[in-house]
Amino acid sequence: MALSSIPRVSPKSIEYVNKVLDMGIHNAKSSGLDAELEKKFAERFGQQYGILMSNGTVTMQAALLASDIGVGDEVIVPAFTVFMTAGAALFANAIPIVADVDPDTWTLDPKDVERKITSRTRAIIPVSICGLSPDMDPILKLAKEHDIVVIEDNAQCFLGYYKERVVGSMGNFSSFSFQGSKHMTCGEGGILLCENEETATKARKASSLGFSSITAEPGNSTIPKELRCHPSFQRHTSYGHNFLLSELAIALALGEFERIDELVSIRQEAAREFESVIAGCDWLIPQKTPENHVHSYWTYAMRMSRDDIEWSEMRRFFVSLGGDGYYAAYQPVHREPIFPMLSDLVKSNPDRFPHWYEKMPDYKETSCPVWESIQPNIIMLKTKYFSLDSARHQAEILAKTIQHFS
Ligand SMILES: Cc1ncc(COP(=O)(O)O)c(C=O)c1O
Are residues 323 and 302 in the same domain? Predict the structure, then answer.
C-alpha cells in the first residue's frame, strides 16, 4: 500500500529516548535497548549476530580485524563507492584493490573481481550502491573457491532483495550505516551483522576496547559492574578500539528500525514517481534493476547520455524550478586524491609505511574504464521524502526539465 506521509522522527524513537533520559545515562547496558536492536536487526537481515557501532565505516574495519585481515592483505572494493569502503581496508592496515562495475547496474562486476584476485586477496566488499545489490552469486562463488571473506557494504541498502534473499544475509558479514542520509538514522551509527559466534565475539571485542568479558551475546559491549569493581580484574585481553554507539543514539535507532518497512516503502514510492517521468525520455537512463532484484532506492540514480547538455546546466535549471539540488556520483574511488597521494607518500617513506611499502599499487595506474566513463554523467536524485506529495512535486519539476532540454 502506498504511503502518503510519515513523521520525520518516529514517535517510538522519542519514547525510547525519553526512557533513556528518565533512567539517567549510564552506559550502553542500562536500558537493554541495545540488546533488543541487535537481536531484532540480525533476525530481520538473516544473520546470527548484530553488533552496534558508532558508524558504518568502523563496522567494516571491525569485520576485517575480526577476520585477522591486515598488513599485506588485499581487499577488493568497487570503483563506484564512497571513500569509506576503501578507507575501512586502510584503517585495518590492508590494501584496497579497486575493481570495475557492471555497465548497466553500476555494481561490482564479478568478472573484474576475478581478474583482480591474487594470492594476497583476503576480502571482497561488494557494495549495494544506491540501494541495489550487486550480482552476489558469482561473487560468493569466487570467495568460496579462493577462501575469501565477504563483507557486504549495505550502508545504502535496507530491505533490498537479491533472488529472494534479503540483502545483508549473504556475506560472512554485512554492514549498515545509520548516518543522517540513510534509510534509517540516529544521526551517526551503524551495525555489523555476522554469521558465527567466534567472529562476532572478535568483532565486538575489536569495537569495545578489547574488554575481557565481552561475548557475541546481544548487548554485551561493556563489563558488568560486579566484575569491573574488583581490584584484581584484568580488563583488556585483546586489542580493541572504542567504536561504541551511545545509548541515546541506540534509542533513536530502535524506534526507526521498528518502522523500517515504511521508511523503505516511501523511498520506493518516490523512485516510482521519477521512473514514470523518465520512462518517455531516451537520454536519461536509470540504474538498471535486474529482474530478480528489489531496489531499496537510497537514491534514484540515472545517467545522462547527451553530450550537448552540461551537467551543471541541467541542475541549475532543475533547481530554478524549485527542484532539490541533486548530487553527482562520487569520483571513482581510486581517483579520490587521497589514493594517488597515499601511493606517492608510501613510495617515498618506506620507514613510515613499512606495512604498505612495495605492496600498495600506484593508484594513478588503477584503471576501471567502465565506471570512469559513466561517472561524470550520473545524476543522483534525493528519495528521502516524508511526504509523497513532495516527491511528486519533484517528479513534476523533473518532467518540466526534461521537456525544456528535449
Ligand atoms: C556505500 C557506503 N559505505 C560506507 C559508508 C560509511 O558509513 P558511515 O558514514 O556511517 O561511516 C557510507 C555512508 O556514508 C556509504 O554510503
Answer: yes
